[in-house]
Amino acid sequence: MKRILLVGIIVLGLVAGSVIPAMAATEQVITITATPTFMSMAFSFNDSHDSSWAVGLVAESGDYWWDDEGGAQATPGEPVVFDDCAGNLTNDGSVNIDVDLNVGNWTGGAGWGINATVGENLVVMKGICEDDANEAAALVLTEVDQELITALTPDDWLGVDLKLETGTFTDDVEKATSATYTVRTG
Fold first, then answer.
1. CA distance 154 to 161
2. HEC profile for 89-135?
3. Residue-wise over 60-89: b if at least 16 C-beta within 10 A, else e?
4. Does the pLDDT of residue 165 top 90, yes or no?
5. Under a CB-based contact definition with an 8 Å cutoff, are residues 85 and 161 in contact?
6. Could you say which DSSP state residue 39 is in?
7. Who contacts 73 (Cβ-Cβ below 8 Å, separation ≥6)?
């Protein structure tokens, strides 16, 4: 009987020994750091310009620059310089940015459609940037975002301007549209 009791105690000891945890590290702390990036642009206006462009009375087959509200500029220089631009777009984020631009169809009366060429109730809208070679480098705008600026670095800026080219009209009702500059990672 002593033998059976001794065997039982040994078995119980082995079972109990396997339940007792081994003494070792049970956790590890990993330090994680991250630096946030953000996209942001600041838009300022040159001279007395603001977020509206009162083109005023327009003639058929005419050309109108946003920076020409005072009548001082017919076309930008070659290359386009800061003083040729009505607005100034600054990358005040922490990463390079691309800037897209689109414009809507003009509303009011018969309206004007945005087009690549002028025509009856069709107008052309163009976007241009400082440092573009000349007016021929201007981006012909559509209702869909198009890239106007590529990889603008943080704290850098570019002057921007818009141009309206008119076709022929079927009414004399005031028209309105808007242009939208949109930032995305560059």
1. 21
2. EEECCCCCEEEEEEECCEECCCCEEECCCCEECEEEEEEEECCCCCH
3. eeebbbbbbbeeebeebeeebeeebbbbbb
4. yes
5. yes
6. -
7. 65, 67, 84
φ, ψ for residue 176, nearest 5 deg: -150, 150
- The structure tokens listed for 147 are 């890239």
Q: And the tokens for 159?
A: 């002057």
Are 164 and 63 in contact by the 8 Å Cβ rule? The answer is yes
Instruction: Tell me how far apart the alpha carbons of residues 130 and 51 are, in angstroms, rounded to a whole number.
Output: 19
Q: What is the DSSP string of 30-51?
A: -----------EEEEESTT--S
E strand or H helix that includes residue 139: strand 139-140
Tell me the domain boundaries of the chain: 41-185
CB atoms within 10 A of CB 129: 23
What does R_g of the chain's alpha carbons equal in angstroms? 34
User: What residues does 91 pair with on adjacent strands?
Assistant: 41
Distance in angstroms (rounded) separating the CA atoms of residues 111 and 107: 5
Q: Is residue 116 very low, low, confident or very high in pLDDT (cuts 50, 70, 90)?
A: very high
Note the pTM of the prediction, 2 decimals. 0.79
Instruction: State the DSSP code for 73.
Output: -
Give one DSSP letter per residue of 160-176, joined into a string: EEEEEE--B-S-----B
